Hints:
There is one protein chain. The protein is 32% helix and 15% strand. It is of the alpha/beta class.
Amino acid sequence: xxxxxxxxxxxxxxxxxxxxxxxxxxxxxxxxxxxxxxxxxxxxxxxxxxxxxxxxxxxxxxxxxxxxxxxxxxxxxxxxxxxxxxxxxxxxxxxxxxxxxxxxxxxxxxxxxxxxxxxxxxxxxxxxxxxxxxxxxxxxxxxxxxxxxxxxxxxxxxxxxxxxxxxxxxxxxxxxxxxxxxxxxxxxxxxxxxxxxxxxxxxxxxxxxxxxxxxxxxxxxxxxxxxxxxxxxxxxxxxxxxxxxxxxxxxxxxxxxxxxxxxxx
Length: 265
């Protein structure tokens, strides 16, 4: 992950704040504001408040109880104040009960619920958080395994918007000493698995141009949903399209298209 120390940075939903603390300590951005979904009492109970206290001691603003999908929780956060926004390993909170799961997934899958979260994040980045005169970069770092890769982050989140997917770069957690990837609603941390940082902007190019790339499976002759190809014959392509793997991903895609259309009505 490339970090420009001249950036004004906002971090979203940073679990125990260890990413923000490592970012501040090792990269010294011009401005850093850190946010977490938990209230202070919940943060202290699950992870302790050490990172929050260390950030505050260095003049870093930390907002607790921050829900990126609900502007009523953003409090004193200034509008259009940042160059880059980071959302590290986003994941919805666990369902409270079987009834809660049934209610939230009445007409959609958990796959769609995660895409809603990430699309809302991107829209709010460019409508509210990012300075139109700044670097205008929104980052999503996610695991490169199922079910995370089934969210189709590269192409599905920017539908019917002026936001562009610029490319991705590997995420190396070793470059952020002390950072622990936290699991939602737990006091454990997630094992280090391969991560990918996806980059979005309203601009079609950025200072990251020589540091990011687009995967081959987004090109012609591949199935971007399933990340397979290239298909050298029509028979190979049709065989894949008829497979259970593709049918499952096609179902996710159609459900997502219907969901986006519904919310735009």
